[in-house]
Design goal:
CATH architecture of the largest domain: 3-Layer(aba) Sandwich
Structural class: alpha/beta
Bound molecules: iron/sulfur cluster
Number of helices: 12
Largest sheet: 4 strands, parallel
Number of strands: 8
Distance between the termini: 52 Å
CATH topology of the largest domain: Rossmann fold
Order of helices and strands: EHEHEHEHHEHEHHHEHHEH
Strand order of the largest sheet: 2-1-3-4
Strand content: 15-25%
CATH class of the largest domain: Alpha Beta
Number of domains: 2
């Protein structure tokens, strides 16, 4: 019962772990049309899937939602009365690049820490937090390099919001049609890893360094301005010699829908605007046909 669920990359796992609880960032399973949170018109399937996961969970003590998008903020309201899991809404400043915004994020981490304490967590010392951060940083560095070996095929980047569990079939679909995804810049991919911690800064001010590595460094579509996202994508597409981009977005997600045309202009390679509605067989066939046609134009 010491597990804390969340999906948003701006929730630092180290902060939860340093409070003595277990962070569990999940990729929820699509819950289709027959789940506890009804298919409300226009509700993002990812947000609904997370809400349904929380509603069906009996092994976690808490779940964190964030204000990164309005839909996630809204589904927290939908689950709060129907679950035995305690919920917390982490307010993320929409603007960044100034000290006041970073301080607001730090203050929110403090509020989250007090909530974790009410769930049985402890109050970590600065040394304990720093040790936890170093441990997590080391584990991230030890993760296998996600860069794909150069095995031929059209080099694609996958860009967009979060993938649901079971959506890895998209990677195989690309391979079957003569391409390969050389980097995953979805919200559940490498784009949302925090920056490496600076050992000197970490010793001086671990919470400040946590905020820098997460809030200041992770490129996000919802930040204003979201120039960090465009800078990151432009650099990675160039370095990894990307020949095309698949922007996979859920049709209810206004945040990504609004950026598709800007991405097409900024990245200077062909872009497939892959809008995905649900996981029905018909939607799967439509996706397969569009990916096949896109790759045919690039070969
Ligand atoms: S996919 Fe878009 S609407 Fe859905 S949770 Fe993510 S940002 Fe929000």
């Amino acid at each position: 019962m010491s597990q804390i669920l969340y999906t948003c990359p701006f929730v630092p796992a180290e902060w939860i772990a340093a409070h003595g609880l277990r962070p569990a960032r999940i990729m929820p399973q699509s819950t289709g049309m027959h789940a506890a949170v009804a298919p409300i018109e226009g509700l993002c399937p990812f947000a609904r899937a997370f809400a349904n996961h929380v509603l069906g969970d009996s092994t976690s003590c808490g779940a964190i939602f964030t204000t990164a998008c309005d839909q996630m903020r809204r589904v927290r309201d939908l689950v709060v009365d129907g679950t035995c899991v305690e919920t917390f809404l982490l307010n993320l400043p929409k603007t960044w690049r100034n000290a006041a915004c970073t301080q607001l994020y730090i203050d929110e981490l403090g509020r989250m820490g007090r909530w974790l304490y009410t769930l049985g967590g402890c109050v970590p010392s600065a040394d304990a937090l720093a040790a936890t951060m170093l441990d997590f940083d080391g584990r991230r560095q030890a993760m296998p390099d996600r860069r794909v070996a150069d095995s031929g095929g059209v080099r694609l980047a996958l860009v967009g919001g979060p993938l649901l569990a079971g959506e890895s079939g998209l990677f195989d679909l690309v391979v079957r049609n003569g391409g390969r995804i050389v980097f995953d810049a979805t919200e559940t991919g490498e784009r949302t890893l925090p920056d490496r911690f600076d050992p000197a800064l970490l010793r001086q001010d671990p919470v400040g360094e946590l905020a820098r590595a997460y809030f200041d460094s992770i490129p996000a579509v919802w930040k204003r301005p979201n120039t960090g996202l465009f800078d990151w994508l432009t650099r990675e597409c160039t370095e990894r010699r990307v020949q095309g981009v698949i922007c996979r977005r859920l049709v209810w997600c206004d945040l990504w829908h609004a950026e598709v045309h800007r991405l097409r202009d900024a990245l200077h390679v062909p872009l497939l605007d892959l809008d995905v509605s649900d996981d029905s067989p018909a939607a799967g066939e439509r996706t397969a046909g569009r990916v096949q046609a896109f790759l045919e134009t690039l070969q």
